[in-house]
Amino acid sequence: MFIKPKKIKMNNIALLILRVVFAGSMLYGHGLGKLNRLLEGNLSFSNPLGIGEIPTLILAVFSEFLAPIFIIIGYKTKFFSFFPAATMFVAAFIVHWGDPFGRVEKALLFLTVFVILMMTGPGKYSIDRKFS
Fold it and tell me: What phi-psi label fits residue 52: left (phi over 0), alpha (psi between -120 and 50 degrees) or beta?
């Protein structure tokens, strides 16, 4: 079946919007606060996996601040989407498991979007596509 070029263009625009909105929301709404906390030396943090508060905070900063920057620009999107997806999996199924659905819902939405980006990649409007 032949796919019309206009449909392909719209799919790529949709992936761009998905990347920018969700990675930007992750970066600003979650990661920036954790980065500031780390830089200020406030290292107390939850430890749901038992690896220690400081390593958990550093991983959260990487997953929620640094990885979204690469996702927004579309650099190694499939690879970098794994990290916020893993973090949101832990948030949904370990940290907030048993909480009311409203507490779990945001983590599930982020998890879903980052898994989709892992499967689809960044689309045409990305750094990766400029160099491939």
Answer: left
- Integer-rounded Cα Rg, in Å, for the chain is 16
CB 68 within 8 A of CB 76: no
Which pLDDT does position 22 carry in this prediction?
98
In 3D, which of 114, 110, 25 has the Cα closest to residue 77? 114
Burial class of residue 119 in the structure, from the number of CB atoms within 10 Å of its CB (0-12 exposed, 13-18 middle, 19+ buried): exposed
Question: Looking at residue 128, what is its pLDDT?
Answer: 85
> Cβ of 62: how many Cβ atoms within 10 Å?
17
Domain locations in the chain as residue ranges: 9-127
Let me know the angle formed at the C-alpha of 74 by 72 and 79, rounded to the nearest 5 degrees: 105
Instruction: Give start and end residues of each alpha helix (H) in 1-132.
Output: 5-26, 32-40, 53-61, 67-73, 77-90, 101-120, 127-131
Predicted structure pTM score: 0.90
Distances in Å between the alpha carbon of 91 and those of 5, 46, 99, 111, 122?
A: 39, 11, 11, 9, 24
Cα-based angle 18, 10, 84 (whole degrees, multiple of 5) = 15
